[in-house]
Amino acid sequence: MFEIDLLINEPFELESGEVLTELKLRTTIYGKLNADRSNAVLVFHALTGSSRIHEWWNGVIADGGVLDTSKDAFICVNYLGSCYGSTSAKALKRRSSRREIPIVSTRDIVRSTSLLFEYLGVSRFKAVIGGSVGGMLALQFAVEFPDLADEVIAIAAAPLSAMGLALNHIQRQATARGDIDIARKIALLSYRSPTEFTDKFGRKPNRNGEDPTAKFQDRFDVGGYLDHQGAEFRKRFELESYELLTKAMDLFDLTDDEIRKVRSRISFIGISSDWLFPPADIRALAARFAENGVDARYHELRSDVGHDAFLTETDEITGILGEILSPPDLGYSEAEGANHYNELHGLAVGCS
């Protein structure tokens, strides 16, 4: 593993029309690019992740793993607007003439990431992979650069529903008051399922010895967990980056005309217990891609964890990624494509 900071001293225009005079992209690379750069895989991290894939997908990326660093080179860029080495939202706000956080779209993030490709000498990727916001970016990549990837894998990602938009709205109301702790606690509720919370916490008193039946301020175990996670998050993530990236999530959407540009094979992965990005929404998006002529497939990770299962259920996500990236036969006949379209049209689960 090694890291580079790419400094770009040329104007970069955002979709909003605002021009950035310079930007920095922190990039982490695992494995080695081969001579012709044909073994490159691009990975997009999730909302509050970093370019260090092993810190949030340990066991998935490894020498001999499903993301095999002994064979391929895995490239991950910390997003424009994030706070783990790239130009952050706080820096963008400071540079703005209005001293406001600019609107940075998923298209802006993907376009800024592409500035790295020429520097690395990569003209095409074996695969582009992302989960949650990273899945949105993987799909945006497929639209913006239709000829640059063989396979695009979008995990637990689709345009946000009204419920998802509502959750992000409330979180940004909290951050506007300086309370990123509360924002994080709200988000955590959407990342886990009721079953997961019941199994993990139930109605147990807080594990530090507090007794909610004895003192008004004493907490149940789930309350202690949320408070701890909120406090830890405040230490590691910048409020402005949280606001910028949740807004980018809100704005992500794809028209049929945009979908028709896609040339890569697209594999969608839903999670059975995910209520932030319900599997029905992801199946429907896969069906839209297929209806617009894209070779689109749907897989489902079965888990009671909720949205975060793609990060915590290592064996399950490894199995699905292995099926997608190393199938017995990479070729699909027209008949197979037609059959797969019919499955998607009927919203059948083509899961492993």
Could you characterize the architecture of this molecule?
With 352 residues, this protein is of the alpha/beta class. The protein folds into 2 domains: 2-161 and 253-345, Alpha/Beta hydrolase fold, catalytic domain (Rossmann fold, 3-Layer(aba) Sandwich), CATH 3.40.50.1820; 163-247, Rna Polymerase Sigma Factor, Chain: A (Orthogonal Bundle), CATH 1.10.1740.110. Helices cover 41% and strands 17% of the residues. It is built from 14 helices and 12 strands. Helix 3 crosses helix 4. The relative contact order is 0.12.
Count of discrete domains: 2
Radius of gyration equals 20 Å
Shape: globular
CATH topology of the largest domain: Rossmann fold
| Top-tier CATH class of the largest domain | Alpha Beta
Low-confidence stretches: 330-352
Note the beta-strand portion: 15-25%
Q: Give me the strand/helix succession.
A: EEEEEHEEEHHEHEHHHHHHEHEHHH
Number of distinct beta strands = 12
